[in-house]
């Protein structure tokens, strides 16, 4: 290794933060070897420029959002693919919706509103259907994603940074040499690298979702603007083409689902907040398998951001869950199942007998939900959260039973409060915690209990205070003072105390 070229690399990377003489006494060749830095001076200069841009763009955030959004846009347009995954399928690029496509989808939404309105007891949103490109879907949904993944990103950036620092084995040596780093110390530098790596993986995941999502509520979360249903034109057409669906019927079907989701979230303000809060709470407790992470960073080339982008998420992030997180994930999946089942229930009721191949379209979505697309898989491996509903069939049966017994208003009233919804145990059919059983003697004693012949008269006497003067009361010693029936009123003050074995 040319030590002069390496010094130039470090000075160009850290700029004014590197005072004169800070590198004196350091074994730069060993540092370069441990960091997998390139031997060629031109490659070193290019790496330095990339590192400077990376640190400058990240700012104080735990995630390099600029890089994440850039990768997401390129992935959505098919210009960048998920590492190790097949090339993107469907409509190439990110075509904007044409005027005719916008007209067709909005006409389908008008029909869906007319058919939904009589079968649900909440207001159907009258907001005009948004017709998006993939890039617009990203722009509208990213503000919802950022607060969800910030806790995960902060933890993971720190964990990745610590693993890199431990692998290099240079934190103490560099700090002892007085060599400042971006952020003030070597740990901050490593954390920024970790935040960049997370941003790369997250960008791929969200960009891939933008190529798959038909609307803003496909994951059961209100990711779009409040009260505005929207469909991604290119993805709707891809879905129709891939499954040979009737175009007109499929547009009405997908519009009805998106509008039903929007109606539910608009009429139930607590629901969206509860879902996002549950995800954030889960994210704050996420942990990585640190042994697997250490193994991953051994061959990492810190000077090559493109090499970081080529890492597959399963190579980087192996999650471990505590029992409390498993329970939280179970409850989240149950709520998502209730949302999905309610939407399926009301849209089927609204469209049954009106659309051809309704069951075929429902089956297409059931299969997508059961298997999850590559983007959902990528998201779960990147963020550690499975946003896939469980027990949708059981939830659908539950909604149908509520509709049959309580009507539409009773069905929608179940969304008034989370306590009115069934628990995971109820939906899954798992038995509740066993209650202690009464003993045989207790059961026999209850069988011998008889009510007074004139129960109403006795109850009236009790409520009026009749016989109150003869009721047991506490005496001065704290014992229970009773009065015998065979003593007259003149014996008041005498009686039997049950304070231990003493008698008065």
Summarize the structure.
This protein is mainly alpha-helical.
Question: Can you describe what's shown?
Answer:
It is a single chain. The chain is mainly alpha-helical. It contains 21 helices and 7 strands. It has helices at 3-14, 28-34, 41-58, 65-76, 99-116, 134-168, 171-176, 186-212, 233-242, 247-267, 269-284, 290-297, 305-309, 313-316, 323-351, 358-371, 374-383, 392-413, 424-428, 440-448, 455-464; strands at residues 130-132, 230-232, 287-288, 319-320, 473-474, 480-482, 496-497. Strand 5 (473-474) and strand 6 form a beta hairpin. The chain is flat. Residues 407-419, 460-494 have a biased composition (Basic and acidic residues).
Question: Key features?
Answer:
single chain; mainly alpha; 2 domains; 3-stranded antiparallel β-sheet; two-stranded parallel sheet
Number of domains: 2
Which word captures the global form?
flat
| CA gyration radius, whole angstroms | 33 Å
Per DSSP E runs of 2 or more residues, the count of β-strands stands at 7
Q: How much of the residues is beta strand, in percent?
A: under 5%
Poorly predicted runs: 170-184, 485-504
Helical run tally: 21
What fraction, in percent, of the residue positions are helical?
A: 55-70%
The spatial strand order of the largest sheet comes to 5-6-7
Biggest sheet statistics: 3 strands, antiparallel
Distance between the termini: 103 Å
Mean pLDDT: 76
Structural class: mainly alpha
Question: Secondary-structure element sequence?
Answer: HHHHHEHHHEHHHEHHHEHHHHHHHEEE
Pfam family, one: Zincin_2
Biased composition (Low complexity): 87-101
Organism: Brachybacterium vulturis
Protein name: Hydrolase
């Amino acid at each position: 290794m040319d030590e002069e070229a390496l010094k130039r690399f470090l000075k160009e990377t850290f700029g004014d933060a590197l005072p004169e003489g800070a590198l004196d006494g350091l074994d730069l060749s060993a540092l370069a070897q441990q960091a997998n830095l390139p031997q060629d001076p031109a490659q070193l200069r290019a790496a330095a420029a990339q590192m400077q841009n990376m640190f400058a763009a990240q700012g104080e955030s735990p995630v390099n959002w600029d890089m994440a959004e850039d990768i997401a846009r390129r992935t959505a347009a098919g210009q960048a693919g998920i590492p190790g995954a097949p090339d993107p399928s469907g409509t190439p690029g990110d075509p904007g919706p044409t005027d005719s496509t916008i007209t067709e989808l909005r006409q389908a939404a008008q029909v869906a509103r007319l058919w939904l309105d009589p079968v649900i007891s909440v207001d159907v949103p009258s907001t005009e259907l948004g017709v998006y490109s993939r890039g617009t879907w990203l722009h509208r949904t990213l503000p919802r994603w950022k607060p969800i993944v910030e806790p995960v990103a902060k933890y993971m950036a720190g964990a990745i940074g610590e693993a890199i620092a431990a692998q290099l084995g240079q934190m103490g040596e560099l700090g002892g040499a007085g060599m400042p780093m971006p952020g003030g110390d070597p740990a901050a530098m490593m954390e920024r690298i970790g935040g960049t790596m997370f941003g790369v993986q997250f960008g791929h995941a969200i960009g891939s979702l933008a190529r798959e999502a038909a609307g803003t509520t496909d994951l059961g979360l209100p990711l779009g603007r409040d009260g505005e249903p929207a469909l991604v034109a290119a993805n709707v057409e891809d879905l129709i083409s891939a499954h040979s669906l009737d175009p007109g019927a499929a547009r009405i079907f997908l519009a009805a689902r998106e509008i039903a989701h929007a109606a539910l979230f608009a009429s139930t303000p607590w629901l969206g907040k509860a879902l996002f809060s549950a995800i954030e709470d889960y994210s704050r407790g996420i942990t990585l398998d640190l042994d697997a992470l250490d193994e991953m960073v051994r061959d990492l080339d810190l000077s090559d951001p493109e090499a970081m982008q080529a890492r597959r998420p399963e190579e980087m992030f192996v999650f471990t869950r505590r029992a409390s997180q498993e329970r939280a994930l179970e409850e989240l999946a149950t709520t998502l199942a209730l949302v999905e089942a309610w939407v399926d229930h009301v849209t089927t009721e609204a469209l049954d007998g009106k659309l051809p191949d309704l069951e075929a379209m429902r089956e297409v979505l059931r299969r997508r939900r059961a298997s999850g697309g590559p983007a959902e898989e990528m998201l779960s491996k990147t963020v550690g959260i499975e946003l896939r509903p469980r027990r949708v069939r059981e939830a659908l049966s539950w909604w149908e039973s509520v509709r049959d017994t309580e009507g539409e208003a009773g069905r929608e009233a179940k969304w008034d409060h989370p306590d009115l919804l069934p628990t995971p145990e109820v939906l899954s059919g798992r038995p509740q915690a066993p209650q202690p059983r009464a003993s045989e003697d207790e059961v026999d004693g209850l069988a011998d209990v008889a009510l007074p012949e004139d129960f109403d008269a006795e109850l009236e006497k009790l409520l009026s205070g009749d016989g109150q003067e003869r009721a047991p009361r506490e005496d001065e010693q704290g014992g229970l003072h009773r009065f015998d029936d065979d003593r007259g009123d003149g014996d008041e003050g005498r009686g039997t105390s049950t304070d231990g074995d003493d008698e008065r």
